[in-house]
């Protein structure tokens, strides 16, 4: 019989338990089975390892020698096992990245860059709810996710969630090109008091709440006549059935004019999140760089936003907005639950 790690574990268990009976219970085997195994170990080593007295099983001099060696070898073997698991997990991290996103400027560009740069499989899961993606990250169903919230109503993140603000942009008015206000570079929210509104359904993110607040501050209640997802909203607005709010990086769509809101009453943050301690720091930095590049490319494809930025050179783009500056990973701050959900092509 070749001496193995499991044999040293038996010797250690008997010494620590003080009897074969208690050691068998700790190891989850029967007492006769453990007795037979101990006898085979003793036969292999050429002598008794334990004697029985009133104190229980007491190590012999040979037993003390073997125990001393076992107490050196077993911790090293256990450390090797755990370190190998961690090493393999890091390898899995490099081989597979599960990425989630709300529809927005980070989604497709980040996915493409991950696919080009990552050696293994990259998968995408889209959700309309930022809060759902936070839960998927918390339960380790995703490695990374791109979510959004409003500066005025930050997304709640638990302490286990790491985050990086990638960009901050203004919310924009989405108008039919035939709308009289579409000829202006910016509109006052109060000028839309008589409009009919197209918004996401009630169970989406926080657009309706933000819209109601803005309109209440302007002295009116919006007339919400159509509730639909982003694709339906584009069709309805382009056909003249209502107006909406959208992200600044909303792509050009035939029949829709993207116009800024005067005094920028609502700002949107695009945030990369992950579970702390799961992706390594180097991978976090790599994915954050991909997300930032994706956002820059999205801005370049958005003429209306580029024009708006030319008229607002002092827009903070994140640095001066509360809780919005990119920097060390960390939650944006406590707030009511999820607040994402503006229309985005």
TrEMBL record:
<dbReference type="GO" id="GO:0003677">
    <property type="term" value="F:DNA binding"/>
</dbReference>
<protein>
    <submittedName>
        <fullName>LysR family transcriptional regulator</fullName>
    </submittedName>
</protein>
<dbReference type="Pfam" id="PF03466">
    <property type="entry name" value="LysR_substrate"/>
</dbReference>
<feature type="region of interest" description="Disordered">
    <location>
        <begin position="319"/>
        <end position="345"/>
    </location>
</feature>
<dbReference type="InterPro" id="IPR036390">
    <property type="entry name" value="WH_DNA-bd_sf"/>
</dbReference>
<dbReference type="Pfam" id="PF00126">
    <property type="entry name" value="HTH_1"/>
</dbReference>
<keyword id="KW-0238">DNA-binding</keyword>
<keyword id="KW-0804">Transcription</keyword>
<comment type="similarity">
    <text>Belongs to the LysR transcriptional regulatory family.</text>
</comment>
<keyword id="KW-0805">Transcription regulation</keyword>
<dbReference type="InterPro" id="IPR000847">
    <property type="entry name" value="LysR_HTH_N"/>
</dbReference>
<feature type="compositionally biased region" description="Pro residues">
    <location>
        <begin position="325"/>
        <end position="335"/>
    </location>
</feature>
<dbReference type="InterPro" id="IPR036388">
    <property type="entry name" value="WH-like_DNA-bd_sf"/>
</dbReference>
<feature type="domain" description="HTH lysR-type">
    <location>
        <begin position="3"/>
        <end position="60"/>
    </location>
</feature>
<dbReference type="GO" id="GO:0032993">
    <property type="term" value="C:protein-DNA complex"/>
</dbReference>
<feature type="compositionally biased region" description="Low complexity">
    <location>
        <begin position="336"/>
        <end position="345"/>
    </location>
</feature>
<dbReference type="GO" id="GO:0003700">
    <property type="term" value="F:DNA-binding transcription factor activity"/>
</dbReference>
<dbReference type="InterPro" id="IPR005119">
    <property type="entry name" value="LysR_subst-bd"/>
</dbReference>
């Amino acid at each position: 019989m070749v001496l193995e790690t499991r044999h040293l574990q038996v010797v250690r268990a008997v010494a620590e338990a003080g009897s074969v009976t208690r050691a068998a219970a700790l190891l989850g085997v029967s007492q006769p089975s453990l007795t037979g195994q101990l006898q085979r170990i003793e036969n292999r080593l050429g002598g008794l390892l334990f004697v029985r007295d009133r104190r229980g099983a007491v190590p012999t001099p040979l037993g003390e020698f073997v125990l001393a060696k076992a107490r050196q070898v077993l911790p090293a073997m256990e450390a090797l096992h755990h370190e190998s698991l961690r090493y393999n997990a890091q390898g899995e991290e490099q081989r597979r990245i599960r990425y989630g996103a709300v529809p927005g400027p980070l989604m497709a560009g980040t996915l493409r860059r991950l696919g080009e740069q990552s050696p293994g499989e990259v998968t995408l899961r889209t959700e309309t709810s930022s809060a759902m993606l936070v839960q998927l990250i918390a339960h380790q169903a995703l490695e990374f996710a791109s979510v959004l919230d409003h500066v005025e109503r930050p997304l709640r993140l638990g302490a286990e969630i790491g985050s990086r603000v990638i960009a901050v942009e203004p919310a924009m008015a989405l108008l039919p090109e035939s709308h009289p206000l579409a000829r202006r570079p910016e509109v006052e929210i109060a000028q839309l008091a008589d409009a009919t509104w197209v918004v996401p359904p009630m169970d989406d993110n926080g657009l309706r709440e933000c819209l109601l607040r803005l309109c209440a501050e302007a002295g009116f209640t919006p007339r919400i006549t159509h509730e639909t997802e982003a694709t339906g909203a584009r069709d309805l607005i382009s056909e003249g059935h209502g107006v909406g709010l959208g992200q600044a990086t909303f792509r050009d769509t035939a029949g829709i004019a993207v116009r800024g809101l005067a005094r920028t009453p609502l700002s949107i943050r695009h945030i990369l999140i992950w579970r702390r301690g799961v992706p390594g720091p180097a991978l976090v930095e790599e994915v954050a760089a991909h997300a930032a590049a994706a956002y820059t490319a999205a801005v370049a494809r958005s003429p209306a936003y580029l024009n708006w930025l030319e008229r607002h050179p002092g827009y903070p783009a994140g640095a001066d907005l509360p809780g919005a500056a990119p920097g060390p990973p960390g939650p944006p701050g406590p707030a009511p639950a999820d607040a994402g959900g503006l229309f985005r092509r």
